[in-house]
Write a structure and sequence with these properties.
- The structure is a single chain.
- The chain is of the alpha/beta class and 251 residues long.
- The chain has one domain: TIM Barrel (Alpha-Beta Barrel), CATH 3.20.20.70.
- Helix content is 36%, strand content 28%.
- It has an eight-stranded parallel beta barrel, surrounded by six helices.
- Helix 2 links the parallel strand 4 and strand 5.
- The chain is globular and about 45 Å long.
- The two termini are 15 Å apart.
- The mean pLDDT is 91.
């Protein structure tokens, strides 16, 4: 069985790491370069950098900051925010990203998924989906959770896989920042529908939540932010805990 991955996430706004609850009430969480370096040294399997206001503010991801972080770490590095073209991807890969994450632009122009996959390979492309459950149905949201669509989570994930996405990063807006656990029912449903890796995001608050998402949710990786930023859980302690609970993990 492939090892499960632990992925800290740096949500970036105005050059600083921020974190909120249900995508709102953001608070400062630290310096992105220092946190990236810390997580790489602690044994994180990968790092995700999301410029969370780039699309909303109609600007490009902070390539200079990406370059600065890439110089300090030696683990796979995924960058997202404001990516709308193959050229944008090229700039970020040149800046040191290993993979890119696309979200809103891919919903507006699904051909972007195929174009990126054709140019750089599916392994380079993570499709991020922000979704919220309302009246029992999961709907996709754009622009950092500001804009609801009528697109259904499961339909969109399947379409993205068919067009060449290499991974799905699914963030449950209902669970984001609540620390009550991941959206395991939806994650499990996704895992039965698609054949590419799924990264669980939104809701991590305690070590058992990670066990649950790897078993009940059948996720391939788990992404978290505030519990790492505010030193509530350390990555080495979490990995030891997962190992003790028979979750395949790189120690």
């Amino acid at each position: 069985m492939l090892a499960k991955r632990i992925i800290p996430c740096l949500d970036i706004k105005d050059g600083r790491v921020v974190k909120g609850v249900n995508f709102e009430n953001l608070r400062d969480s630290g310096n992105p370069v220092e946190l990236a370096k810390l997580y790489a040294n602690e044994g994180a399997d990968e790092l995700v950098f999301l410029d969370i206001t780039a699309t909303h503010e109609r600007r490009k991801t902070l390539a200079a900051l990406v370059e600065e972080i890439a110089r300090e770490i030696n683990i796979p590095f995924t960058v997202g925010g404001g990516i709308a073209s193959v050229d944008d991807v090229y700039v970020l890969l040149q800046s040191g990203a290993d993979k890119v994450s696309v979200n809103s632009a891919a919903v507006r122009n699904p051909q972007l998924i195929q174009d990126i996959a054709d140019k750089f390979g599916s392994q380079c492309l993570v499709l991020a989906i922000d979704a919220k459950q309302d009246n029992g149905e999961w709907k996709v949201y754009l622009n950092g959770g500001r804009l609801q669509t009528d697109i259904k989570l499961f339909d969109w994930a399947k379409q993205a896989e068919q067009m060449g996405a290499g991974e799905i990063l699914f963030t449950s807006m209902n669970h984001d920042g609540t620390k009550n656990g991941f959206a395991n029912e939806a994650l499990n449903q996704l895992s039965q529908l698609i054949n590419i890796p799924i990264i669980a995001s939104g809701g991590a608050g305690a070590m058992p939540h990670f066990v649950d998402t790897f078993t009940t949710g059948n996720a391939d990786a788990a992404l978290a932010a505030s519990i790492f930023h505010f030193k509530e859980i350390s990555i080495p302690d979490l990995k030891q805990y997962l190992h003790q609970h028979n979750i395949p993990i790189r120690l």
